[in-house]
Design goal:
heterodimer, A: 446 residues, mainly alpha, Serine Threonine Protein Phosphatase 5, Tetratricopeptide repeat, two-stranded antiparallel ribbon, globular, B: 993 residues, 51 strands
Chain lengths: 446, 993
């Protein structure tokens, strides 16, 4: 053999030097790939829903229910961050405080990406749809952030207290990183209202399980109520009640634990065995119904029953587990989680009518009694404002409304003034650590 | 090596035979016999016999690991019997990555651990045998599960990205990361679980950059070279090793019993405004009847239920031998470990073959193959209710079982983890195949070429089931299965060139390597099972999810190394490696990793050569750069992935990638000195190193207002500097007694040198701050209890205008400022091993210790919270404040009162310890007796692991840390209901025939 083996080995050596370093992931798209197809705008919106669902399908409301609690709830769980809400001693590292803040801004960013990329879609109908839904979700999230992370909105005031950062840039690249400060609360409310009004103009009147124009309008009613703008709240609720084709479920049980669209749900967070997370069920249900603890973490205590003066389905909408009285509203694991119900629209319209001395749609007393009749409660007569407020507590119990009602009605909670620092969530410590421009809320350290 | 130029008379060559023995007059099989200055050499057979061609005047060098080598000039006699004495073998051949070098030639810092220190330590994985044996190498098992991974830190925490596992190189092939457990709830599996420790010949840890830099971009965490056993010429030797062991947890915490629980919680409830009737009603709700708690009729120690007695059974059988051209090693092993955590067990079957064949004078071929199957019964990771140790939260008067004594009681405070055993399963099977083909060709007298092709394949199938009584009761049973197949192939080709002159020895290596990794996964989950007996997904009424996935990574490398020895005194080495990795952004795919070192063997200088005391003195200095590429394979790319909503696919941001992401670079200086005294009976080394890491790869928090909360970036610079001291001493060598000692001690100091804009990076009680140790604990400082009212106090720690801290106290945790209060890295750690041998009896033990690290215990917030929640409390909570004037560290018990349960130094502790890591007492039958029974060698031994621990740490064990935080290394140093390691006592029996 005359061929020097060196050459063979040199050949082997060089053969091996193929260069294959540019590998791409198989389960994700780059921003350029993503934003080359207008159909992906729709999918970004679904992604934003998925993030909003993470905490608003009950986890966050559970925390705010405990923050508003004055003895109606028996909390027995291991989860100390939740316990801190009931004690009204929230720490800046509280995980519930962080989780909602972060998922809300992750979802807002997805909405902003959609809003910045609307030009991709040439069909004006679809474009309006994308814009409307993105603004709906963004408005919803700014409203939730504003009413939880800032001192209460004071009607008639300039509301210059720090709100939350308003972000409009859709970040898809690290070079776009921003370190925003907090906008005044008034600006955040104004932005939320503007987004929701745009959504009301842009969205179709029917949109399946997603937001339609009346969903935006119903949420506007809630925002106006929080601002004590009773006239606008009444009008918005009226619009929804008259035009949305949603109506009260025939009985209380039918309003909850629905695995498909409930007739009463103006917006419900979708939960299926494959996705969505029923935070209410996790904390309120016993584990044989999917909850975390064998006998539930939150039980209903006796003082809650004092809200009722006679027979009322809502005073017995419970099931028992190991001596714990558990709310039946959150009994089914894979049920959708109502976020805005028709009952709330009736309550808003009746309060608006009552305060304004009008009878748009229905006289307030009649409207409250319709709601009561649904739960087989005796009708009220000589309706007072307090009756309406109490009706809200009975009807909307355990759904996360109480803390915000107390704040707008300037009611003490457990002897703590409605505008106390302790009833406002802190800005998450990790966010303060990462962003030097963020100011902490008063009462949370120095 | 010097050319022996004096001998030119080849005609007088003859055959020399003889036997090599040790000081006990026992034959030494496998000793090297080499004719100095030539390539001729042989190895003694199992009877210690050798046969070699040599000429009169030539010198034979006899060497054996752990013994002083001897040089004997060939004279007239043709029989040469040699006795070697225990000592430090400077002629020991070490692997240095793509080549070999003798210890004498070395300018690097390499720790070597041989099989005799690995065998007979009854742990399931190789790493566990290494603890305390190598200076500057911290080896910690993460918790007490049989499959647990290890954290190995070489010379301090140089990196905080991803896993801190070093690069494992098995017989020249870098191994893949081989754990693909379901993220979130599974406890990580040791990367080397498939490897049978009995097959290991030696382990080398490349510590300094000059040694490790040849592995370039993956060498920052250290490189561990694992060499497996091979056959040798001679009669086939069979070896049977069996061992059986008993194990139990090293420690257990004390919890309140029923009487104490009722007392403390009644007090706590009354302090919080409850009535006695209310708290009694609560007690009743978790007791079957009132007497259970009132009279203490039920008193369950739930930790006793979680921690069980385990066992180890180990069986290995091997055959090794060979002829003139072919040698082989075959082995099979079986290991059955019943864990000390309820429901945890492991079984491993392994099969191994290694064959080398000399095809031509100039061509050697070889194959190594290894097949193994590992079956695991697992429990969920520390954080989940499936971890039996979470049961410590249960109330002591809760009964564990129903009346039937078998069905777990479901009326418990938190999920009863016994149910996971009774009504569920969590199995993992790992099939791993490893094959390597290699050829070595001498292309010319001084030029050889080596080609290695390695293939490493893992199939991990994880199957879980929760039945209708378990956590999945609401969905009538839930099951899932994840199957991940991973393959990696590696091609190494390199040339070696040796050239000697009278004064110089040169050695050069030039080569390339290509690696490609492919991972494919398949997942399926379902619920609504018709029966708890039907546990596979074909029985699920509804399939609720599934996916398939795939990812790849590749690495192409070129390397060169040049070393030279001048006059047997001066040593030079330089190397260069270039790596291109698919993990990084397009702009920075290639990295270059140079290294250089210089050594001076002063003892070979004329003025020291004749010293009677100083037998070896070598000074070393080295420098080099290594990299770390331990990131997600696509960390540099911004990615949108899928999240579904109402079963429709949505897009979400999965990662904000930094396109400039690149290698993390560590440059390291090492200054070392080796001393050998009294004919190398006493050897000691001192090394000082400075290890600077820049462009740290790590996840930096960003304001989530940008739509994501972190980004992987190259950030900042840290420095580890330290001192390592090793000492090996042959204290006594006599004909019937030897005693030697190895000692190592390391000091390490870790500091963050620079951060972008000098800004702190904070992440969950950890801080990265200039001038502080990396990942320092950063939290509010607990100030104890106000004697007047039992309130928990915290130091305000506000920085005052004069720069001092306001040490006044507050009860409002939010008013207290965080400060740096410790870090998870030890300042000092070390080990000491003694080996004693008296006739046939031997005794050895290893002590291991560390000082200066802290451990945080997050579950303290509910387990040691002076009865803030109903979870059972550690017994020290009985020292709570009860009346004005009480001086104690435990605040007043207030049910749901949140009195001192916030994150603070109350739950931070020093983790100093000294541990008797292992001790072995063995007896080897005299050869004459063994031979009568037809055996070559018969040995029995008794070994204990983790026998004693001396520590002030009041948690379970200073080494058991949270398994689910293993990858998040910034969060290292926390324990979380983590099972302690096992204390194991094993009886073993080895025979060779």
């Amino acid at each position: 053999m005359k061929i020097n083996p060196v050459y063979i080995f040199l050949f082997l050596f060089l053969l091996a030097c193929n260069d294959n370093l540019d590998l791409e992931p198989t389960d994700s798209l780059t921003p350029d790939e993503l934003l080359s197809d207008p159909a992906n705008l729709d999918k970004l919106l679904l992604g934003a829903y998925a993030y909003a669902d993470d905490e608003l399908a009950g986890g966050f409301q559970t925390a705010t229910e405990l923050l508003a609690d004055e003895g109606n709830l028996a909390y027995q769980g291991i989860i100390t961050p939740l316990q801190a809400f009931q004690r009204k001693e929230i720490n800046v590292d509280n995980s519930f405080v962080y989780e909602f803040w972060s998922t809300a801004y992750i979802a807002i960013n997805l909405c902003n990406i959609v809003l910045e990329s609307l030009d991709l879609e040439e069909d004006p109908v679809k474009r309006a749809f994308f814009e409307g839904e993105a603004k709906f979700l963004r408005g919803l999230l700014y409203f939730e952030l504003a009413r939880n992370y800032a001192l209460p909105y004071e009607p008639g005031d300039r509301n210059t207290q720090p709100g939350v950062p308003l972000v409009f840039n859709g970040v898809t690249d690290l070079s776009e990183l921003e370190f925003p400060g907090r906008n005044p609360l008034e600006e955040v409310y104004t932005q939320a209202i503007s987004d929701l009004q745009d959504a009301y103009e842009l969205l179709p009147s029917k949109n399946g399980f997603r937001a339609d124009r009346y969903t935006a309008r119903a949420l506007l009613a809630r925002v106006y109520l929080q601002q004590a703008n009773f006239e606008s709240a009444r009008d918005a609720a009226h619009d929804v009640l008259v035009n949305s084709e949603h109506e009260l479920a025939p009985n209380l049980a039918a309003a909850f634990n629905n695995e498909s669209a409930g007739v009463e749900d103006i917006l419900a967070w979708q939960v299926t065995p494959q996705d969505g997370y029923n935070g209410f069920n996790f904390f309120w249900a016993s584990s044989d119904f999917g909850g975390l603890a064998p006998s539930g973490i939150l039980a209903v205590a006796d003082p809650f029953l004092d809200l009722f003066s006679g027979p009322d389905d809502r005073a017995s909408f419970f099931y028992e587990k190991t001596g714990n009285r558990l709310s039946a509203k959150w009994q089914a694991l894979f049920a959708n989680v109502p976020y805005i119900r028709v009952a709330e629209m009736h309550l808003i319209r009746s309060e608006g009518n009552f305060r304004e001395g009008t009878s748009l749609g229905l006289p307030p007393e009649e409207e409250i009694n319709i709601l009561r009749a649904r739960s087989n409660a005796a009708p009220l007569s000589a309706l007072t404002l307090q009756d309406i407020v109490d009706e809200r507590r009975r009807e909307l119990a355990f759904e996360g409304h109480r803390i915000h009602d107390a704040k707008r009605l300037k009611e003490d909670i457990d002897g703590i003034p409605y505008n106390a620092d302790r009833l406002v969530m802190p800005i998450p410590q990790s966010e303060i650590d990462a962003n030097p421009n963020l100011e902490q809320n008063p009462g949370y350290g120095n | 090596m010097l050319i022996f130029s004096g001998s030119s008379v080849w005609t007088q060559e003859k055959i020399i035979t003889g036997q090599v023995r040790d000081n006990f007059n026992q034959p030494l099989p496998g000793a090297n016999v080499v004719v100095q200055g030539t390539g001729r050499g042989t190895i003694t057979n199992f009877d210690g016999d050798y046969q070699i061609q040599a000429a009169e005047g030539e010198t034979l060098v006899f060497s054996y690991v752990g013994f002083n080598s001897r040089q004997i000039q060939v004279a007239v006699a043709t029989t040469l019997n040699v006795t070697l004495l225990p000592g430090y073998n400077l002629d020991e051949v070490l692997l240095i990555g793509y080549g070999t070098a003798t210890r004498a030639q070395l300018t690097d810092n390499i720790a070597v651990i041989n099989s005799d220190q690995i065998e007979e330590i009854p742990v399931t994985s190789l790493q566990g045998t290494l603890a305390g044996k190598a200076a500057g190498v911290q080896i910690e098992q993460i918790g007490g599960r049989a499959e647990s991974g290890f954290r190995i830190r070489v010379r301090g925490g140089a990196t905080i990205s991803g896993s801190q596992e070093p690069l494992y190189v098995l017989d020249g092939i870098p191994l893949q990361k081989a754990d693909f457990s379901i993220e979130d709830s599974a406890s990580p599996i040791n990367d080397l679980i498939a490897l049978n420790p009995a097959d290991i010949e030696s382990v080398e840890i490349l510590k300094d950059a000059s040694a490790a830099a040849i592995y370039g971009s993956r060498a920052t965490n250290g490189v561990v070279l694992i060499n497996t056993k091979s056959g040798r010429k001679g009669e086939t030797r069979f070896s049977l090793q069996t061992a059986y062991g008993w194990s139990e947890p090293t420690s257990k915490l004390d919890w309140l019993n029923t009487k104490e629980y009722v007392e403390l919680y009644t007090e706590a409830a009354l302090n919080s405004g409850w009535t006695e009737a209310e708290i009694a009603a609560f007690f009743n709700s978790y007791a079957r009847d009132e007497a259970d708690w009132r009279e203490g009729r039920v008193d369950t120690d739930w930790e006793d239920l979680a921690s069980v007695s385990g066992s180890i059974y180990d069986l290995n059988f091997s055959a090794a031998g060979g002829g003139d051209k072919t040698t082989f090693y075959l082995s099979t092993g079986y290991n059955n470990t019943q864990g000390i955590v309820l429901g945890n067990a492991m079984e491993r079957y392994s099969l191994r073959a290694r064959i080398e064949h000399q095809a031509k004078d100039w061509l050697t071929l070889g194959v190594i193959s290894n097949l193994s199957k590992t079956q695991l019964s697992r429990v969920e990771n520390d954080r989940f209710f499936g971890n039996p140790y979470t049961m410590v939260s249960q109330i002591p008067f809760s009964r564990p079982y129903e009346e039937d004594g078998v069905t777990p009681n479901t009326n418990t405070l938190v999920y009863n983890a016994l149910m996971d055993q009774y009504n569920g399963e969590f199995e993992t099977n790992i099939w791993r195949g490893f094959a390597k083909l290699h050829l070595e060709a001498y292309l010319a007298r001084n030029l050889n070429f080596r080609s290695e092709f390695g293939y490493d394949y893992t199939d991990q199938l994880e199957e879980r089931f929760w039945g209708s009584l378990s956590q999945a009761a609401a969905v009538d049973g839930f099951g899932d299965a994840l199957d991940v197949k991973e393959e990696k192939y590696v091609l190494n080709n390199y040339f070696g060139y040796r050239f000697d002159t009278e004064d110089w020895d040169f050695d050069a290596t030039l080569g390339m390597s290509y690696e490609e990794l492919l991972v494919k996964g398949l997942y399926l989950e379902g619920q609504n099972f018709p029966s708890d007996q039907l546990r596979k997904l074909d029985s699920a009424g509804e399939i609720t999810g599934g996916y398939s996935s795939e990812w790849r990574a590749s690495l192409v490398s070129y390397f060169a190394r040049f070393s030279a020895t001048l006059l047997n005194r001066w040593l030079f080495k330089a190397s260069l490696r270039m790596d291109g990795s698919s993990r990084f952004g397009m702009d920075s795919q290639y990295g270059t990793f140079p290294a250089a070192s210089l050594g001076w063997i002063a003892s070979n200088e004329p003025f020291l050569r004749d010293s009677r005391t100083l037998s070896n003195l070598k000074l070393r200095v080295s420098w080099g750069i290594t990299g770390n590429s331990n990131t997600n394979p696509f960390a540099s790319k911004t990615q949108f992935g899928i999240r579904t909503y109402n079963q429709e696919p949505g897009f979400v941001l999965d990662r904000l990638g930094d396109p400039a992401l690149s290698w993390e670079e560590t440059s390291q200086y090492n200054f070392g000195a080796d001393f050998g005294l009294f004919g190398n009976r006493l050897n000691t080394s001192l090394d000082y190193y400075v290890k600077s890491t820049r462009d740290l790869l790590f996840s930096t928090p960003i304001p989530v207002t940008n739509g994501w909360f972190e980004t992987e970036r190259n950030t900042g610079k840290i420095r580890n500097s330290g001192l390592e001291w090793t000492l090996d001493s042959q204290n006594i060598i006599s004909e019937n007694f030897t005693w030697n000692t190895s000692f190592n001690l390391a000091f390490n100091r870790n500091r963050v040198i620079a951060l972008p804009n000098g800004a702190d990076i904070t992440n969950i009680l950890r801080l990265v701050r200039e001038g502080e140790a990396l990942a320092s604990f950063y939290m509010v400082e607990y100030a104890g209890v106000d004697p007047d009212n039992g309130n928990a106090l915290f130091y305000r720690n506000t920085v005052l205008p004069d720069g001092s801290l306001d040490r006044s106290t507050t009860t409002n945790w939010n008013e207290a400022n965080r400060r740096v209060v410790g870090n998870p890295f030890p300042d000092v750690f070390g080990g000491m091993t003694h080996n004693l041998r008296f006739g046939g009896i031997d005794f050895s033990f290893t002590l291991q210790g560390q000082w200066g690290a802290q451990i945080y215990n997050p579950p303290g917030k509910w387990q040691s919270s002076n009865a803030n929640v109903f979870n059972n409390q550690t017994r020290d909570q009985l020292n709570r404040w009860q009346q004005p004037g009480d001086i104690t560290n435990v605040p007043q018990a207030r049910l749901f009162g949140g009195n001192g349960n916030q994150e603070s130094t109350r739950y931070l502790q020093d983790a100093d310890f000294i541990r008797l890591r292992n001790a072995t007492l063995g007896y080897t039958l005299p050869a004459s007796v063994a031979e009568k029974a037809g055996m070559d060698r018969v040995r029995v031994y008794l070994t204990g692991v983790n026998l004693l621990t001396f520590t002030d740490f009041t948690g379970r064990d200073p080494e058991s840390t949270a398994d689910f935080l293993q990858g998040a290394s910034l969060l290292t140093g926390a324990t979380y209901n983590s099972p302690p390691p096992a204390r194991t006592i094993t009886l073993g029996f080895n025979i060779d025939f």
